[in-house]
Amino acid sequence: MGQSRRTWPRRLLAACTVLVVGVVVAAPPAQATHGSGALRSWQLRKAVTANGVLHHLKELQKISDRNAGNRASGSAGYDKSVDYAEKVFRKAGYRVTRQAFDFQTFLINSPSELERISPAPGDLEHRIMSYSGSVDVTATASVPAGDPLGCVAADYGPANVGTIVVVSRGTCPFGQKATTAAAAGAAAIVMYNNVPGGLAGTLGNTFTADFGAVGVSQALGQELVAQVPAGLTLRVHTDTYRGMATTENIFAESRWGNPNNVVMAGAHLDSVPEGPGINDNGSGSGALLEIAEQMRRTHPKNKVRFALWGAEEANLVGSTYYIANLPQAERDKIALYLNFDMIGSTNYVRFVYDGDNSAFPPGTGSAVGPPGSGAIEALFHNYFASQGLASAETPFSGRSDYGPFIAAGVDIPSGGLFTGAELIKTEAEAAVYGGTAGQAYDPCYHQACDTIRNVSKRAIDEMSDAVAHAVITYAFDTRSLNVPASGPASGSTAPAGGGGGLHDHEYES
Ligand SMILES: [Zn+2]
Fold first, then answer.
1. I need a surface site. Which of 1, 90, 162, 319 has the fewest CB within 10 A?
2. How close is the Cα of 128 to the center of ligand 1, in Å?
3. Catalytic residue from among 312, 313, 377, 393
4. Is 115 assigned a catalytic role?
5. Domains (ranges, CATH) in the chain?
6. 503 C-alpha vs ligand 1 centroid, how far in Å?
7. Mean pLDDT per 10-residue section of the chain, whose length is 509 residues
8. DSSP characters for 138-191?
9. CA of 384 to the centre of ligand 1 (A)
């Protein structure tokens, strides 16, 4: 088809294109004939393409390439990302506003190093802990003299002074371990996982000590601990910037629609300082930019407000600031909030936030979904089922920008999609969704390799259509939020599984 088409006269081709469009409008497929809502959804999904989303991802990659390889809030790469989004939204005719706020940023000046000097010299696989200070130390390694978890001062003794301590994850936050080790006179800290896999964590944005901290896998940690009695010597080099910085959220609001019934859809625009953040979260941002563009001629019944958040990776700072500074009267006008954080993972599963807590009851790792959140979840499951696509559930954890929206006293119905982060795909999931069991959903999660090559075009295509369906459906009618919905909808065939990953920097043990 592509081959023969090339030989057609240009004018004929143009005429055919017009004809095809005419036919499409006159005879939509069966699923679109059940009412104007279904037709609108179908039309928007036709217009929203994977290539359209990928175009934005390529632009974000270019911005990262020209600005030190990342788009973290507080960096030039982030500011340029906001400029880019503003240009796209304005061109599509939206009312655009920026909201600036200050926060404690964390940037990486040069890649961190963890080196084994002896025995068996060589570079060791590790991840810098967010908010680590800058150090370059070579010293004997030690383990805490007392409890190996190193949470309290009593765990340390004179033998740890001046050494690089190797400490297990567990019981207390990473920041507490680092603070305690620094106060005990250690030179740096290496924390190792207490479950299989690497360790990336944050010391928290209140950590300001001149002290270096890196994370390693459980296997490497145990290896190092075993070498301590034989006189293990390590080198830790971290080169970072911590300080107050101004960053921004950006909003684009439709000029049409009831301002007292606002449909919000958001994604964080910032990356981690380790890399360009194309799946996390160029993918969610790019999908919203594409959808906003394709809705530019839509006159929605309800006001549609797109939000791109800053400083999500520094612990939901932008969305928290927005909600904290939004008067109650304005909060009351928000009918619902949709969140899209990572929707292009290469080894993906179609995860829907478990808004009715049916798969992940409130408690460890799951917040209670405000009323209406179950209806949003059902809308997504039903949509996927209508396309013959399975969908699964991910904990309603609040560990992305919907957290402040679902907080007690705010209680805005929320929902969203996720294609998986650092956790490992199960055999059962691979049987339903394809991909590779035993590998992470996103093998480049929070790393330098989260580039334009780290997204699945198919995931982007399927998920951006689901996003489009939800946005356009609620843009015209939010009444379904009042219909109680619970349990996975019919057609949701996949097991709940682990839910794709924690998708944030782990604070706790
Ligand atoms: Zn994210």
1. 1
2. 18
3. 312
4. no
5. 35-94+254-482 (3.40.630.10), 112-240 (3.50.30.30)
6. 6
7. 32 35 36 68 97 98 97 97 98 98 95 96 96 98 93 96 97 95 97 89 92 97 97 98 96 98 98 96 98 97 98 95 98 98 98 95 90 97 98 95 97 98 94 96 95 98 98 97 67 47 45
8. EEEEE--SS-TT--SGGG--GGGTTSEEEEE-BSB-HHHHHHHHHHTT-SEEEE
9. 22
